[in-house]
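Recall the central idea of this unit: under ordinary conditions, the amino acid sequence of a chain determines the structure it adopts. In this exercise we apply that idea directly, starting from the sequence alone.
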Amino acid sequence: MRGIHLVRLKFLLVALSTLLAAFGFGGVAMAAPCVTLEAYGGSANGTTDNSAAWSSALAAIGTSNGCIQLGSGTYKSTTAVNISLSSTTSQSISITGAGPRTTVLYFPNATDGIVVAMPVPTNGLNVVGMTIATGQIGGRGGLVINSPCFGTAPGVANFGTGPQRLIDNVDFRGFDSLGSSTGLGAQYWGWGLIINNASFFNMRSITAYGPEFAVPTGGTGILIQGSGDNCASAIFNVSQGNFQRLATGVMYGNAVQGLNITQSNFTDNVTDFACPPTSKQVVQLTLSGNQFDNGRVTGSTGSVVIGCPLSDVMITGNLFYAEGAINNIILSGSSYRYAISGNNFVQQPINSLRGNAINALGVVTHGIISGNQFSDYSTGVLLGSNASYFSVQGNNYTGTTTTVTNLGTNNIIGGGTP
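Accordingly, the structure predicted from this sequence is:
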């Protein structure tokens, strides 16, 4: 009887092997399990210094593809976690937690949080499910990603041939806010996420918090930048984000191409999106399906402030709130090819300090402003003396004192509902 059972077992194993092969799984080895910090002396008890455990876990992965699995609790580290991916292979690494607040990486000292070096264009990176918290007021960068320049000629972007990298469900904040009944605190990162020269990133469900209102609002949620002429960082998608009480929600640094921000909320920031005048060689921005509300913060400059030479811009289907004499969209740089359509601009509450919804005061040319709703503004659209070749058509201006002020040249101002 025993021999019969062995024969049957062998038959079943052969059949299973055949079935797996038929579905393309034949000969595939089992993936190595993720390493843990606990296996190298680490702990999520909130007091143990995990600096050495991080170093040991990363050394165990070496130059292979690998992953680090973080459990629930607080992993304190007194130094930054430095991850250097292979410069000779297409190494990819994943760092995965159990979710924001459930998994907390705590950096009490004046250091960065996680610093990743991606020396070749095919390196991969995934950071998922955690809070990265600082114990500093205006601490450095929560997650810093660095790549060298891969460009070889003028106009060649720093694309590489790598995968789309993923930063998902990651929360950047001050550590003191985690124990606060209001969720507010004095501590905050100087920059939540910084991407230098790297390309191809999906950033989903990013949360970045600045300090409570009792202290000056500060910090930047996401900063993306390249290094110059032949080194443009390119292809970024930000979705389902939440940016609050920051100096700047998302910033376009120097040499960036192809940023898409959608389905995100910007609340109580000094500026929600900014491209400062110092940024050069920037192109292609899409803002769609977002909500912007920054008027309650003292010193607010505007929701979307484009002071750089940024061209090829789509701003569609967003909800803008203004509270006080601010401008929702400021176009102060030297740029062209704008489409601003299907947005809802709402001045709230209605008082004597009413701002302008769209203020094109820079050398801005070739734009379409159409199908927008403007409610209770001082001016709906203000085209400055250097604004030209704009078509302003088919907007609705409810309770707005001045629908369109046109100080520029070669602009077409069409009809609209007053």
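Residues 1-30 have pLDDT under 50 and may be disordered.
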